[in-house]
Amino acid sequence: MIEFLVMAFFVAQPMPAVAATPVDGGTTPPVADAGTPAASPSQGPLGPVDLKEPVQINADLIEGGKSQATLTGNVKVKHRTLDLKCDRMIAYFAASRVVTRVVCTGGVHAVDGDRMARGERAEYDVASGVLIVTGTPEARQGTTYMRGTKVRLTLGSERLDVENAVIIFESPPSAPAPGKKKGTPARTTPAQPQEAAPR
Known about the structure:
13-stranded antiparallel β-sheet, single chain, 13 strands, 199 residues, mainly beta
């Protein structure tokens, strides 16, 4: 399984190759072990930089390009308070290699606090924190269940918008009557055998 910070992965720019030339008539720069170039002071660490609110993604496979990456297999996205799962995801990023938007398909399931949504497709805008779920979406907030044609969930907000909604308000479970426990049968006294009267 591949686990990485997507924003850190996309923010890192490849360093251009520089020809090894002697400085002031000196010798060529040292070379590390076979096939590994020597570390340059201008290159930073390979690990994640200190990012504010990074997007973290786990997936079985990633295929990257210049402006997007495709992730497949057990995709899990974590951003701020949002946990998003799906089968396949495309992450889009700007020229600065920062993720701007993700599109998830197949088995979409999102959780943000007490709000949940699921469907077949989801688009998440990273900057605004807006998640839109389509494909026979369903949503739940507390004891309220909803289904419709589109679910809109915004991070940092209590709102949950559903277009063409059918809403079911669930009643909280009723408390059992005092002195009786729910599911406990009433106690009965077994019948005593009676003796026949003498004749």
